[in-house]
Amino acid sequence: MPHSQDAAALTPQPLQEMQFAMAATRVLTSAVQLHVFTHIAGGRRTVAAVAAAEQADPRGLRMLLDAAVGLGLLRKSGPEYALAPLSARYLVAGEPDYLGYAIETEHLWQSWSHLTEAVRNGRPYRAVNRQPVAESFFPGLVRSLHVQNRQPAERLALALRPRAGSRVLDVGCGSGVWSLALARADRSLRVCALDFAPVLELTREYAQAAQAAAQYEFRAGNLRSTELGCEQYDLALLANIVHSEDEATLDQLFSRIRQALRPGGRIVIVDMLPNDERSGPVFPLLFALNMLVNTEQGGVYTLQEYRTWLQAAGFTAIDTVEIGSHSPAIVAQRN
Fold first, then answer.
1. Residues with Cβ within 8 Å of residue 276, at least 6 apart in sequence
2. In the chain, how many H helices and how many E strands?
3. Contacts 24+ apart (CB under 8 A), 115-122
4. What is the value of pTM for the model shown?
5. pLDDT reported for residue 178
6. Cα-to-chain-centroid distance, residue 214
7. Which of the 8 DSSP states describes residue 130?
8. Cα–Cα distance between 236 and 216 in angstroms, integer?
9. Which of 331, 327, 315 minimizes the C-alpha distance to 157?
10. CB distance 275 to 320 below 8 Å
11. What is the pLDDT of residue 291?
């Protein structure tokens, strides 16, 4: 039992707040699904105007808008609502930095609702990294991740500074946000972008928008079985993809990438890194559970685990690079 003084200081409030934390998620999701931020940006600033545009119940909508004010997503003056800076930049559909593509769906909510079941039986609610689920799941997510990762990708490109004319392998490329930062910095650089065919349509779209499509080869496939070649690349990117795989797959993948790299070539891994004791930071620990409910064998791995696997695959000079994200990037060199 805790000391009486410690017990007296304890209250259930942290647990109550944790239990009710789901409310903020639902407010954000429903507001995006009801196009609240887009309507307000378009000049519909009252409950009546937004309700009419969305054919929503005015009473419920007023409650939703007021909750969004409380969460800092909206501002209120009398009967009129206005966008907070965060919402104005990231939650207005059609704007370049719109993050709502992933929020619009119920994917996270549905998967996490099955967490207890997944912990009991070790099976995911759905395996989003397997075809054909991946082909329908990732396109929306990829658009939001492009915005989230754009600045970290630019910082990584500055830190890597590959030699002019380098060839880059972008495995599980998504929108191509990480390799595009390199391609924009060096127009002589060439990229082989590997992902599922429907995702590559988005990669091509983003490459064209960056006027970099001519620098890209778009290769449909998956990281487990697609042939990567031998000594063809100077740099291999694995950005936010390793967490979907298990140790056996990663052992093979790192070895295949080493073979695909030229001598002195580098592998770069961007992912969620818990500390060696797996006691923090909290985001990677929570993301591990996201992999439990969404993949068959995925997880998050420590820097020490990466060091062990990369050394076994034949990589040396393993180091980290801060990119202003939740975790540093890992960079290693082929010996």
1. 302, 303, 304
2. 16, 9
3. 115/289, 115/292, 115/293, 118/292, 118/293, 119/292
4. 0.92
5. 98
6. 26
7. S
8. 14
9. 331
10. no
11. 96
- Measuring CA to CA, how many Å separate 257 from each of 250, 269, 325? 10, 12, 25
Q: CA triplet 245, 143, 246: central angle to 5 degrees? A: 0
pLDDT value of residue 41: 98
Q: What is the pLDDT of residue 1?
A: 47
Please answer whether residues 215 and 185 qualify as being in contact, where contact means their C-beta atoms are separated by less than 8 angstroms: no
Which residues on adjacent β-strands are paired with residue 333? 266, 316
Contacts of 199 (CB under 8 A, 6+ apart): 134, 135, 138, 139, 142, 173, 174
Q: The tokens of 171 are what?
A: 């495995």
Q: Is the dihedral of CA 126, 131, 136, 141 positive or negative?
A: positive
Task: Write phi, then psi, for 237 (nearest 5 degrees).
Answer: -105, 130
d(CA 240, CA 284): 12
SS3 335: coil
Low-confidence ranges of the chain (pLDDT < 50): 1
Strands across the sheet containing 261-270: 216-220, 190-195, 167-171, 233-239, 261-270, 329-334, 315-321
The continuous run of DSSP H or E covering 192 comes out as: strand 190-195
Q: 3-class SS at 191?
A: strand
Distance CA(149)–CA(237), nearest Å, equals 14
- Give dist(CA 201, CA 204) in Å, integer: 5
SS3 (DSSP) at 217: strand
Task: In whole angstroms, give the CA distance from residue 41 to residue 134.
Answer: 33
Residues 6+ apart with CB under 8 A from 126: 111, 133, 294
How far apart are alpha carbons 21 and 29 in whole angstroms?
Answer: 13
Distance in angstroms (rounded) separating the CA atoms of residues 81 and 86:
14
In the structure encoding, which two tokens stand for residue 39, read together? 């309507």
